[in-house]
User: What shape does this take?
Amino acid sequence: MQDLKQMWDNVLSKLESMVSFVSYELWIETLEVLDYTDKLILVATSPSAKRQLIKNHSKELTEAIESVFGEDTKYEVLDPEEKEEYLKKNKPQEKVIEPDDSKRMMFNPKYTFDNFIVGKSNQFCYAAARAVAENPGYKFNPLFIYGGVGLGKTHLLHAIGNYLKQSNPKLKIEYVTCDQFTNDYIESLGTNKEKGSVKGTAQFREKYRNLDVLMVDDIQFIAGRTSTQEEFFHTFNDLYQQNKQIIISSDRPPKEIETLADRLVSRLTSGLIQDIQMPDFETRVAILRKKAQLERYFIDDDVIEFIAEKVDTNIREMEGLLSKVYFFATLLGKKSASIEEAKEAFKEQIDVKKEKLTPEVIIQTVCDYYSIGYNEITGKKKSKEIVEPRMMAIYLISDMLDIPLVTIGKIFGGRDHTTIIHSRDKISELMKKDHKTRTIVNDLKSQISEKC
Ligand code: ADP
Ligand code: MG
Assistant: This one.
């Protein structure tokens, strides 16, 4: 059993190597862990220690906490006065954290159906997830949910898990990421060799083949892992034949996962395949309101709308900005940030992005993606292998940057602006009809953002 203290010690030892000796001694080692319920509550020695810590080391603190407590773990730093207020309101309790193996069985209590905002972009996914939760193993088996990063796939999987745990506590449910499944499998092989028996794999099979519900999150990472695919195929068949529910998530549909064995593709496509897309503006606003309510953030409606407008590709990123604005207001000693302060809070982030984001970066990313040369894409060639990436680069530049069409034409070897408009509109059209184009655009956008 790992308790909170041990986990915090692990966070400290990570941070020790991430920040300077002075910062560590002054602001980090002196932190007190007050509570860990829905978020980690830390107390700094003074208001100025809190300010310095947040100003200089939020990034490192977030990284170290997430690496020990799990992705998306939230924390809040209080000063001594705020600690007193907090204690008056909440009775702190030490939470015993389950060891790794059972930790993965825990579903995030916030990821429920109630907390999931339904709009046009996700209504079918939501309905399918509910149907499976209410009647596992019957209607949609397997249920395969796919869509870009941060659009709510994991949330829905956990919502199914939370629902089932409550409605039918006896069910044996396993939720794993693709990496956990792979690691479990590899480990079982290791035990097998060491002990010179089939114990390892037998244990693995006993665990996975006696389930009522198996959920595998982010299955796309199984690409290229041949023996894991093989094992997954048998697990799948075994469960499926017993009418056990299988739920899978991925960032793309089965047939677009490269090197996925044909027979596995056909298994995965045999149930319901449902895509999830980025919600429209109104739904994004509703999601942010819900989030603010859950986290008890006070945020004005115009600020929420501003955030919903700024971020239109990833809900996780949108939520990140929401907490940033909230913390910014807290730093200013206010309850809620004004729209000007919200703009100020992301100004730095947006400016840095803008400076680094250039047409060259976009073109180079597209070239690397399609394995073609920079001179080819900006040159005269009209072969299909070059025309498609060229249109894609033109689309991304006009979508992500605010530069005149004529200038884009010049970058692409002096092309006329009508040609630029044609390329841009062609990709927009394709994106409406064709999921593959959407996936490529999303992949490219996230690769570009990673560089900037
Ligand atoms: P994915 O697994 O698709 O990458 P997640 O499920 O991790 O995305 O979602 C990212 C964040 O966005 C989570 O905090 C989740 O609660 C939130 N989220 C996504 N869609 C919705 C929604 N429709 N309503 C409320 N929250 C949502
Ligand atoms: Mg996910």
About this structure: The first helix runs from residue 4 to 18. Strands lie at 2-3, 32-36, 40-43, 75-78, 96-97, 143-146, 173-177, 213-217, 245-250, 272-275. Residues 92-104 have pLDDT under 50 and may be disordered.
